[in-house]
UniProtKB/TrEMBL annotation:
<dbReference type="InterPro" id="IPR009056">
    <property type="entry name" value="Cyt_c-like_dom"/>
</dbReference>
<feature type="signal peptide">
    <location>
        <begin position="1"/>
        <end position="20"/>
    </location>
</feature>
<keyword id="KW-0408">Iron</keyword>
<dbReference type="InterPro" id="IPR036909">
    <property type="entry name" value="Cyt_c-like_dom_sf"/>
</dbReference>
<feature type="domain" description="Cytochrome c">
    <location>
        <begin position="24"/>
        <end position="105"/>
    </location>
</feature>
<keyword id="KW-0732">Signal</keyword>
<protein>
    <submittedName>
        <fullName>Cytochrome C</fullName>
    </submittedName>
</protein>
<keyword id="KW-0349">Heme</keyword>
<keyword id="KW-0479">Metal-binding</keyword>
Amino acid sequence: MKKRFWLAVFLMSVAVASQAADGPTQERGRELFESTKLGTNGKSCASCHPGGRKLEWAATFDDGKLAGITNKCIDKALKGKPLDPAGTDMQSLIMYMKTFAGPGK
């Protein structure tokens, strides 16, 4: 009986960890922000916004508007393919960009 209980606890913890890994994270957002793989010209978001420069306003926009602005940059500045606005990568990127908000957020 004890073995079944601990097996069930283990399986539930694995399921919860798996679900958490599939959701948006700031760490994934940072990786995307610094990655040159969002585009085709060797640049990243950090190329134009080192340390989040000029993104202090990011937290003032709703996620939909910020996704649109971000995709415009990916398309034009990075020469890349826009991300799914509702996808995990875009949500992670938005989550990370909002960390650059100024003190008045």
